[in-house]
Known about the structure:
By secondary structure, this protein is mainly α. It has helices spanning 2-12, 23-43, 45-68, 77-121, 127-145, 161-185, 206-231.
Amino acid sequence: MNEGIIEIRPAQAMEMPQSLGALYDWKFAVVYALVILLLFWLLDEKRALRFGVLLILSLWINAFMSASGAPWGQAQPALYFWIPIAVWFVCGPLIEKYLAMGGIRFQNIAVALTALAMNGLYPQERAFPALFLGFCLGYTMMKQRFPFAAQGEINGKKPAPQILFVRCFIGLAGSALIFLLLGMILPGEGSILRDIPNWDQSSPFYDIGRFARFGLLGFWASAGAPRFFQRVGAAGNPA
Length: 239
């Protein structure tokens, strides 16, 4: 039995939040993240932003509750998944109204403070605050500097299927490159440099590297990929 446990652990050490508990929870998160990314790049970037923020917050709440020993923390992650959604249905329009009134600078400050609070309340898990920060800051930068509309017209027409395929390929390839390449270089069990002293998960730079890695993933999704789409002529013009 002990040998089986030892064999399983390396497969689980893929820089994924162990506090989520069951592997099913992480598969659930990956599937929904892919759906949100494709929604952002192909159909409706505004709704994808909302869904993405709600997903990140719900996963963070689940991880936080699980680590704190709260009731149902491990057994019922769906309970915590619906908490941000319920709050959003009640307060969402009001939150969006005040964020819009405050302008870009106010929005960025609110995002940074939220990520800081997430990090402070549960410093053992860096991925979700980093994703939240990168995804939201990337979105505000994109809207301000190079507006992207998933269903915007290209040469007077809606995006053709081949254009959508190009977006999928570029977006997912970029995400995989960031996740895998940085995972190979930054401190951690998956790093090709792990034999260097203090370059495994015990490295003092592990948390910083993890935060940077997931922050870049979020930023790529909402800003990097749309900018790349524009560069190759695969982005539509906002209405």
